[in-house]
Design goal:
571 residues; alpha+beta; 6-stranded antiparallel β-sheet; 22 helices; 45% helix; globular; binds guanosine-5'-triphosphate; binds magnesium ion; Thg1_C_dom
């Protein structure tokens, strides 16, 4: 959810000048006693005047290609799917100037001057990451026809800041070299398998070999010349933004010239001067450079303190427009809520360290066990969760929305916030549920007034201006004979998903980031495995009752002791 403060300011602006149409957070929210938890959120702005590279990597790409039965060593359908998805991301994020993908890796380059999202690293990363994941799922049938997608892409992302043009060139060259090494190895490996070697034999033949030896094996044993392989496999896919001038004639007959950009695909060498002097012009002089190990230091990491609660909150990008475009019911669309809940459930099944999640409107918060042993790398955690969420949102779309076509791939942003103790964590969750309550009460009233036919949107808005909860309850009761408390708890309280008991929570700790997803699990959408057992409720989480009845959720000393015991387990 966008910052409440921004919403309040936005609302005040709207109040002055425009009629509001739907879903406004009330200024009363600003007075919520829980609001202080916002101060735990950080912006993580990236330094100015640096190239920003968002690097995305499909987790377990090998297992993905094996499970999906992709052609080895390269499946052109998957490459085309990746190219189309990179293009979709670059078309949505117009500031991106360069994209590069091979196998399960995708890189996106923002120019040094970009001010998108005020250069907030997590926002840039997670928007791209989720859009890439949702595009891969959305466009899958265009390239694979009726062959089902069995594995949701889980994409881990990192952010890199490069202060000069040489570092950018070196980074891109390094990634292309990785593509080359990976492709050469795979080409020889699968050629050997085709010759009758077993997988183990082929691996043995290639063990410890260098590039020149691999070329030689390919030539002598398989009668193939690597140089003759297609560039798309050897070099990976480059997507570059170019600007063209178009002549547009206006209604008055006058013609104007406008610059518009388009994305072109190419398979060129990043190591050669030609690319940086003729295709993608750099300001500073650069040269080919074989030493790239220094680049590691340019990764912008978000280190998360141990023993703190980690909350990852995701929020739909531009869901106001998305909901209008897909004709969501107002004020609440059961299908959209179901889709969000299904995606969140999948996240909880996939990431056993998520002990509880809370969702409302287009947002979901995932709470990660404070004693989790997972790598406390903020960017990787956020991106993995948001990519899986976005992928599942699209994957389940047809089942839930049935006859409504998904018009475009949705994106979600994510942020990671740390809370030092149980009390802050509870206040955070209370803040989100209070937000749900306030929004829902306003929206229920607003749409009852409008849908009654007796009020225009502007009139309904005027009537509700300055009202407090008591007034809205009275409007609902007096004008519509509706008791707000009798409205569905799904809308009033949002959705809480939680692990069903301490035993399963402890098991989950042992299986940190266990990637046990499988084709049938994806289809089932639920797992019978006790460790993944998740309960769904629409109840109050602001009061004590929910927590005292479920002591295992926030953990006790006993739980912490169990965690210490986990040191004995090999991870
Ligand atoms: N009709 C309808 N709209 C919904 C529903 N759930 C969410 N939305 C829309 O999603 C929006 C979510 O609010 P925000 O996240 O603040 O708005 P946004 O358009 O996504 O903007 P950003 O998050 O800043 O990109 C709401 O204002 C609604 O317009 C629903 O069940 N029905
Ligand atoms: Mg949103």
């Amino acid at each position: 959810m966008a910052y409440i403060l921004r919403k309040i300011l936005h609302r005040r602006l709207l109040e002055i000048s425009f009629p509001r149409t739907f879903q406004i957070t009330l200024s009363k929210m600003a007075k919520s006693k829980f609001e202080y938890v916002r101060s735990f959120e950080t912006e993580d702005k990236l330094d100015p005047r640096h190239w920003i590279v968002v690097a995305l990597q499909c987790r377990n790409y090998d297992r993905f290609s094996e499970g999906q039965n992709l052609k080895r060593p390269n499946d052109l359908r998957f490459i085309q799917l990746v190219e189309a998805s990179i293009k979709a991301v670059m078309e949505d994020f117009k500031e991106l100037v360069l994209g590069y993908g091979f196998a399960g890796e995708f890189n996106f380059v923002f120019p040094k001057s970009t001010t998108l999202y005020k250069r907030r690293g997590p926002k840039l990363l997670t928007n791209l990451c989720s859009l890439m994941a949702s595009s891969l799922v959305h466009k899958w049938p265009n390239y694979f026809g009726s062959e089902p997608l069995c594995f949701p892409p889980v994409i881990e992302g990192t952010v890199h800041l490069f202060p000069d043009d040489q570092a950018l060139r070196d980074y891109m060259t390094q990634r292309q070299l990785a593509c080359h090494y990976c492709n050469l190895y795979n080409t020889v490996f699968w050629a050997l398998v085709l010759q009758g070697h077993t997988l183990e034999d082929a691996a043995d033949v290639l063990k410890g070999t260098r590039e020149s030896e691999q070329n030689e094996i390919l030539f002598s044993k398989c009668n193939m010349n690597y140089n003759k392989e297609d560039d798309v496999f050897k070099k990976g896919s480059i997507a570059m933004r170019t600007w063209k001038q178009a002549t547009v004639s206006g209604p008055d007959g006058l013609t104007t010239h406008r610059n518009h950009s388009c994305i072109i695909n190419m398979y060129k060498d990043f190591s050669k001067d030609h690319f940086w002097k003729e295709e993608f012009l750099l300001e500073q002089p650069t040269k080919a450079n074989a030493k790239t190990s220094y680049l590691k230091a340019f990764e912008k990491k978000i280190a998360l303190l141990p023993h703190t609660w980690i909350v990852v909150r995701i929020d739909g990008k531009g869901f106001h427009k998305f909901s209008e475009r897909h004709k969501f019911a107002k004020p609440n669309d059961d299908r959209s809520i179901e889709l969000m809940n299904k995606a969140a459930l999948k996240v909880m099944q996939h990431f056993p360290d998520v002990v509880l999640s809370y969702g409302q409107s287009d947002e979901y918060s995932f709470v990660i066990n404070r004693y989790s042993k997972m790598e406390r790398h903020g960017n990787k955690i956020m991106s993995s969760i948001v990519s899986l969420f976005a992928a599942m949102y699209v994957y389940n779309w047809n089942n839930v929305f049935e006859n409504v076509t998904l018009e475009y791939s949705p994106a979600f942003d994510a942020r990671v916030v740390l809370y030092p103790n149980n009390s802050c964590l509870r206040d955070y969750l209370s803040w989100r549920q209070a937000d749900c309550h306030i929004n829902n009460m306003y929206n229920t009233c607003f749409w009852m007034l409008v849908q009654s036919g007796n009020y225009s949107r502007r009139e309904a808005e005027e009537k509700l201006r300055g009202t407090v909860s008591k007034d809205k309850r009275a409007i609902l009761l007096n004008e519509f004979k509706r008791d707000y408390d009798a409205e569905d708890a799904l809308y009033r309280k949002g959705t809480i998903l939680f692990r069903h008991d301490c035993a399963s929570s402890t098991t989950s700790l042992k299986t940190t980031f266990n990637l046990s997803y499988a084709c049938d699990e994806l289809k089932k959408g639920n797992s019978s495995n006790e460790a993944y057992s998740v309960v769904k409720e629409h109840t109050d989480i602001i009061g004590d009752q929910f927590w005292t009845e479920r002591p295992w959720l926030l953990g006790t000393e006993q739980c912490a002791k169990t965690v210490d015991d986990l040191d004995n387990f090999s991870q």
